[in-house]
Amino acid sequence: MKLLIGLSLLLNNILSDLELKELRMKYQYIQMKNEELKQNEPTNQQGQYQIDQVEQEKNDLQAEIIRKEVRIKELNSSLIERKKELSQLKAKLSHNHKVSDLKIADSNLKITELENEIARLKQKILEEEQAKMKLYQKVNELKQKLANHDYDRIKKLTDERKELVNKLICEENAKKILNQANKLLKTKNIVLKLQGEAIDALQDCLENSTNNQNENFLRNFFENMPGIKNNEFAEKFQNISEEYKNGLLLLENDYKSLSNIVKDEKDLKVSLIIENIFNLNSFNPDKYKIFQSDTNMKVEDINLLKKNLGDMKSELKQEEKELKNLED
Ligand SMILES: *[C@@H]1O[C@H](CO)[C@@H](O)[C@H](O)[C@H]1NC(C)=O
Ligand SMILES: *[C@@H]1O[C@H](CO)[C@@H](O)[C@H](O)[C@H]1NC(C)=O
Ligand SMILES: *[C@@H]1O[C@H](CO)[C@@H](O)[C@H](O)[C@H]1NC(C)=O
């Protein structure tokens, strides 16, 4: 039981049909978008080159903005200093009434100079601020350009598509393996049922013939039964044997197919599990033969055949149970 729970946990990559359908639709959508974008886009390399250029331009502009901010700060410091000088000079003039006319004229000249300087600094700061705003705008435009660039979108979509394709392939293959495993179990079920019928028919042959007939029957059977048709039991056995032989061929074929798929997909977790459930490495068709050797069949041998059949039926039940656990 513990083992089975472990197996189910291992098989977490199996999707439901609905999920698989959604995955396929998403894939188709991405595929379509991808093609659409590619048609409006130069080659990837050219696209990347353009992007790099825009990126470089944006970085240069951002550095320029920082330089402007430093410059504005410097201008502002000068402005503050000049303003301070001016107000100190004006205060000195208004408090001191005994200054000479010459000094007053000199101070007035100085005040005019400071006022001009202040106006010039204010104008300069305004210009720098405006230039800075223009740079900001330009940077935003470039950012938008980068965000919209088809190259990036194509790359993202392509990666997403690749991932989806891988996932889809894994899912499809896991489903293929499980389908084949179920097919094998169905065939095995039919084959074992036929074997049961064949054993019963053989038992009838052995029990309802005289010893002499019995020997003849088996010899004839192996020599392709020319004279067997007048024996009802033998004919029935022959008919069932024919069916059984065909069933056995189908079963061998199913084992081979399952082994091949599992080998091809050995990276999938489900492959390893299926290989273990079905003992794919040690499949032996001889196990299914009713006649192991020759004509020395005795009634007692029937019991051995029945026991062998019982063992194989238990094995089948176990395999069915484990596969069902895997799929739930
Ligand atoms: C100049 O500096 C003063 C004081 O630090 C500040 O309040 C003002 O915003 C600054 N002006 C500019 C244009 O940076
Ligand atoms: C074969 O013979 C046994 C008795 O020996 C009998 O019970 C059985 O029904 C016979 N089988 C058939 C198919 O007639
Ligand atoms: C065996 O098969 C043949 C051909 O299908 C059929 O005619 C015959 O009745 C069958 N015999 C028995 C005993 O089932």
What pattern of helices and strands is seen along the backbone? Answer: HHHHHHHHH
Can you count the helices?
9
Total strands:
0
CATH class of the domain at 177-325: Mainly Alpha
Bound chemical compounds: 2-acetamido-2-deoxy-beta-D-glucopyranose
Question: What's the alpha carbon Rg, rounded to whole Å?
Answer: 47 Å
Helix content: over 70%
- Percentage of residues in DSSP E strands: under 5%
Average of the residue pLDDT scores: 82
Q: Which secondary-structure class do the elements indicate?
A: mainly alpha
Outline the low-pLDDT stretches.
1-13
Q: What is the second-level CATH architecture of the domain at 177-325? A: Up-down Bundle
Shape summary: rod-shaped
First-to-last CA distance = 14 Å
Coiled coil: 20-174
Signal peptide: 1-16
Keywords: Coiled coil, Signal
Written overview of the protein:
With 328 residues, the chain is an all-alpha fold. The chain has a domain at 177-325: Methane Monooxygenase Hydroxylase, Chain G, domain 1. The chain is 84% helix and 0% strand. It has 9 helices and no strands. It has helices at residues 2-10, 17-39, 44-95, 101-148, 150-207, 211-222, 232-264, 269-278, 299-327. The protein starts with a helix and ends with a helix. It binds 2-acetamido-2-deoxy-beta-D-glucopyranose (3 copies). Residues 232, 235-236, 239 line the site of one 2-acetamido-2-deoxy-beta-D-glucopyranose.
